[in-house]
Amino acid sequence: MSIFDLFRKQRSAPMARERLQVLLAHERASTSSDLVAVLREEILAVIAKHVDLDSDRVKIKVDREETFSMLEIDVEIPLDASLKAA
Amino acid sequence: MGKVIVVTSGKGGVGKTTSSAALGAALAQKGEKVVVVDFDVGLRNLDLVMGAERRVVYDIVNVIQGDAKLPQALIRDKRLETLFLLPASQTRDKDALTPEGVETVITELRRVFDWVICDSPAGIERGATLAMRHADIAVVVTNPEVSSVRDSDRIIGLLDAKTLKAERGERMEKHLLLTRYDPLRAERGDMLKVDDVLEILSIPLIGIIPESMDVLRASNIGAPVTLADARSAPAQAYFDAARRLCGEALPITVPGEKRGLFGKIFGRKAA
């Protein structure tokens, strides 16, 4: 640590930006929860018809962009999941 | 048919009322016929900021409850012929605003004025949701500060869900008005930059209002800042924002960012 570091305060704006990004990603997912929750249940039901699946392994996220929202669906299927007869 | 704008933010104290008055006056200074409507029932302040506090006889609640006709409640600005104010009531409780009553008032105003500017109260309760309900355009007022940005994000979500436009499946036009911006502090890394806020909120920018003594001075004398000192930096920024609302494609400048030595010595006035 140089002596100059003693006088230099940490820039706070990058921290504000990062905290907001993390928080808002979370809050957006929970406030648009009606849609997300319904989608999650229905998608889960469809996949569960064909594959044995842990309900925690389905992640659904909505990201807002300027002119559209991005729906991200992340389904983790374990290797040993037994396929149900199609 | 006039356009309805809601000036909203979620958080209090970020400059909704100042911006409603300044944008309203700036549009009227261009010759547009404008009414600014105070939705903050119980805590009205638009009358004070516009210097009309002693001329309030009837208010929006009187109109909704049928105690007065709309033209009786409208106050014409003393300086600008085409600028009008519809005050909120100071005494009644906020439940006095009914969805049907607000709809009737807005419909009538839209017929007469080019612009109906709805100054929303802080929060996400009844007054705020009614203020945004009929809007065609939303101006989201935000300070470069974490709590304001978070609340604006919440309001953007409501604009996309709880307005008539949203319910009809149409897209609400939303604009960010960044207020109390200090380019020097942002440059030093001690304040969120314009681009940071834009990236987080993802709505287009309509103006950057610099932090300035002129804004306080204007409210002290009871005049929208565009009337109090039309050449000041915040007034210029509001004029530009008003032109963008009218559809002009002006480049956005960060006020006072390129300040040379002269500007540093003479400060704000030279900026």
From TrEMBL, chain A:
Domain of life, per the record? Bacteria
- What are its GO biological-process terms? cell division; regulation of division septum assembly
Q: What does this protein do?
A: Prevents the cell division inhibition by proteins MinC and MinD at internal division sites while permitting inhibition at polar sites. This ensures cell division at the proper site by restricting the formation of a division septum at the midpoint of the long axis of the cell.
Q: Specify the protein name.
A: Cell division topological specificity factor
Q: Which InterPro entries does the record match to this protein?
A: MinE, MinE_sf
Cited Gene3D superfamilies: Cell division topological specificity factor MinE
Q: What is the lineage of its organism?
A: Bacteria, Pseudomonadati, Pseudomonadota, Alphaproteobacteria, Hyphomicrobiales
Which species is this UniProt entry from? Answer: Pseudorhizobium flavum
Family under the similarity heading: Belongs to the MinE family.
Q: Which UniProt keywords apply?
A: Cell cycle, Cell division
Asked if the record carries the keyword Nucleotide-binding, the reply is: no
- Supply the Pfam families for this chain: MinE (PF03776)
